[in-house]
Amino acid sequence: MGDNKFVKKILCIGAGYVGGPTMTVIANFCPDYHVTVVDISQEKIDRWNSNDLPIYEPGLKERLLKVRGHNLFFSTDIDKGIAEADIIFVSVNTPTKTFGEGAGRAVDLQYIEKTARRIKAHARSDKIVVEKSTIPVRAAETIDKILHSGNNSVKFEILSNPEFMAEGTGIKDMETPDRVLIGSMETPSGIKAREELVKLYEHWVPRENIVTSNLWSSELSKLVSNAFLAQRISSINSIASLCEETGADVHQVARAVGKDSRIGPKFLKAGVGFGGSCFRKDILNMIYLCEHYGLQPVADFWQQVVDLNDYQMRRFVQRILRAMFNSVVDKKIALFGFAFKPDTGDTRDAPAIYISKMLLNERAQLWITDPHALENAKADLEGVDGQVTYEPDPYKAAEGAHTIALITEWEEYRNLDYERIFKSMEKPAFLFDGRNHLDHEALFQIGFNVYPVGKPARTHV
Ligand code: UDX
Ligand code: UDX
Fold first, then answer.
1. Which of 291, 328, 315 is nearest to 402 (CA)?
2. DSSP 3-state assignment of 297?
3. From 13, 302, 307, 400, which residue has the greatest number of CB atoms within 10 Å?
């Protein structure tokens, strides 16, 4: 079969968490499009071409196997891919800068820039370039300047098409999105390019859910979406501290407040704080932008969302200390869960990292258990002073411990035999439920001193 049965050729640069699943879904819904995913990492591409995919997402593998080798291809030949493509998605990573100006806050755009230069060097025909990676507002301008510099007759149209996938539900989020956002320059050629991308998404997304806007709105909307979600978590966590003092129950408050249809019930779960690769990074990036434009009060407002999150993690540790007679020196503490949320082994910016470091600083003996994240936990805590043991079996992690601190709400933690665990622990036995995940009354009846988040403690001591 020749390639000419395809109406368009798509290239995606970056075969990571975003690029791989996104292109798999596109290839499934658009059999008339030829999709190639390229990456600088040979190892990653080899894994995408094998049965051992580099990432786990529910539903990904079945969908990939349906189209791989038909209209979905993985390769390291980036330059050939660029030369042949009509539409190029850029989904290389955009980490927070770790050096120089803006370190710790601004986005490191070196991979985006390198990719733009490579596109320019190998494009021989007009292309649409789509920003999929999350980047600062007006980054498209930089990309545009690079692509149109020098004497090249090739024309590029730049679109912004941010992803809104959450880990663990990435495929579902892509298949039935609340919205697809496409930003473009509002010139005739910009709008024409935008319509090309609308046409692609219309293969499965109803037209009314495809939102179009100018480029800067689209870039900013991605940052704002994550900032608003994180802000809700910090809002409810701030109320959790007030509940603990006043005898109110944060779960009941969230339910009552969330019933107001203007507020809504989602993202109001109090806990030890948010983690993950996006929230902190995107808010810090937005704060950096605000400061760049001299909007200090706006920057300060959003900084509070991050500060409150840090406070929430600190507060969790302080509560442990206070309950345990102000010292955890040499006391065994079992940390239940290390991943930033359940159903993933991902520990990027996980609250467990911060909490572990604080507890180790207090010289506790930490026993960390997690069904999928122990390898990452080891890497995250490498070089940190203190006594840490990594134990896949939660029963062993809790044996002889003074306290259990639940950090990630893995389903299996609900189904453990807590009578058995209680018997094996030092007394008085404490349990800090950082996600309000367990049956607190039952645990109290067994004999535990139970400390939920945002609810009064149930204690025997
Ligand atoms: C994505 C988005 O791109 C990022 O902006 C968002 O904020 C988080 O999610 P993600 O897919 O999670 O990034 O990153 P990662 O899994 O690290 O994948 C990026 C891939 O790009 C890697 O496989 C890397 O090898 C590749 N890459 C990087 C290139 O192919 N070329 C480069 O120049 C740089
Ligand atoms: C997020 C966004 O949801 C997604 O749209 C975006 O594209 C990428 O960033 P993700 O980081 O995968 O996705 O996870 P998410 O489910 O949003 O959870 C983030 C963190 O918030 C987790 O640590 C979670 O435990 C915490 N959280 C979430 C709460 O503490 N309370 C809540 O009510 C919801």
1. 328
2. helix
3. 13
Q: How many CB atoms lie within 10 A of CB 149?
A: 11
Q: What is the pLDDT of residues 297-356, one digit of tens each?
A: 999 999 999 999 999 999 999 999 999 999 999 999 999 999 999 988 899 999 999 999
Cβ pair 391, 397 in contact under 8 A:
yes
Q: Which ligand is nearest to the CA of 95?
A: 1
| CA-wise closest residue to 73 among 54, 7, 203, 81 | 81
- Catalytic residue list contains 222: yes
Distance of CA 310 to the CA centre of its chain: 17
At 36, which helix (H) or strand (E)? strand 33-38
Cα separation, 289 vs 105, whole angstroms? 10
Residue tagged active-site, from 44, 127, 222, 455: 222
Instruction: Provide DSSP, 209-246.
Output: GEEEEEHHHHHHHHHHHHHHHHHHHHHHHHHHHHHHHH
Residue nearest to atom 34 of ligand 2 (CA): 267
Question: Mean pLDDT throughout 171-179?
Answer: 97
Q: Once rounded to an integer, what is the mean pLDDT over residues 49-61?
A: 93
Q: What is the mean pLDDT of residues 429-449?
A: 98
Token readout for 325 is 């007679």
> Tell me, what amino acid is at 58?
P
- 40 CA: nearest ligand 1 atom: 30
Distances in Å between the Cα of 409 and the Cα atoms of 338, 342, 405, 424 are 10, 6, 11, 22
* Residue among 107, 102, 165 nearest 135 (CA): 107
* Per-residue pLDDT tens over the stretch 85-107: 999 999 998 888 899 998 988 88
Tokens of 220: 């900013």
**Per-position b or e across 45-58, b if 16+ CB within 10 A of its CB:** bebbeeeebbbebe
Token representation of residue 454: 């945002």
pTM: 0.94
Distance 276 CA to ligand 2 centre (A): 7
* Cα of 312 from ligand 2 centre, angstroms: 16
- Distance in angstroms (rounded) separating the CA atoms of residues 275 and 290: 23
Does the structure show a pLDDT above 50 at 1? no
